[in-house]
Amino acid sequence: MFNLNFTICLLLSKLLLLPKSSKIRDKLKDKGLLFMMNILLIILTAIFIIESIFEVRYFYQIRTIFNQSGRIEPTKRVQRIITIETQWSWISWIFLLLLFVLPDMYTAILICVITLIETWVVYELYNAREYAKKINEK
């Protein structure tokens, strides 16, 4: 999933950073590729929303696992991931607000970056949840 997001981001950034009067951009417009890019951005946005739901779910599952096990403090590994998730939550809100301010050609790149980072955070939270389950079963 991460490699697919990265490849899509690279392609979109190359296409969107073309000057508005460029011949390549005009040809892309004629062939409907800009329409396809918009569809792709909608798909990436949907992926981001779905990953955000899983992010919150995994975060609270980790908290629940440690609360039920009787441990007050999570391990350093899990604590690091929780800290990253908390920081990313604030940073993602800033990025989301930037989407309304930036010009169109930068919003596509920003959506790609947000989705890439969100994918990584969800992956780390999933691993932390599995690790927390494993160490608290013993």
What does it look like?
The protein has 138 residues and is mainly α. 86% of the residues lie in helices and 0% in strands. The chain contains five helices and no strands. It has helices at residues 2-16, 23-31, 33-69, 76-99, 104-137. The longest helix has 37 residues, at 33-69. It is elongated, with a radius of gyration of 19 Å. The mean pLDDT is 78.
Provide tags for this entry.
138 residues, mainly alpha, 5 helices, 0% strand, elongated
Could you give the topology of this structure?
Elements: H1 2-16, H2 23-31, H3 33-69, H4 76-99, H5 104-137
Helix pairs in contact: 1-5, 3-5, 4-5
Point out poorly predicted stretches.
Answer: none
Please state the structural category.
mainly alpha
In total, how many beta strands?
A: 0
**What is the 3D form?**
elongated
**Order of H and E elements:** HHHHH
Radius of gyration: 19 Å
Strand percentage, roughly?
under 5%
Number of helices: 5
Helix share bin: over 70%
Largest sheet: none
Mean pLDDT, rounded to whole units?
A: 78
Report how far the terminal alpha carbons are from each other. Answer: 32 Å
Summarize the structure.
It is built from five helices and no strands.
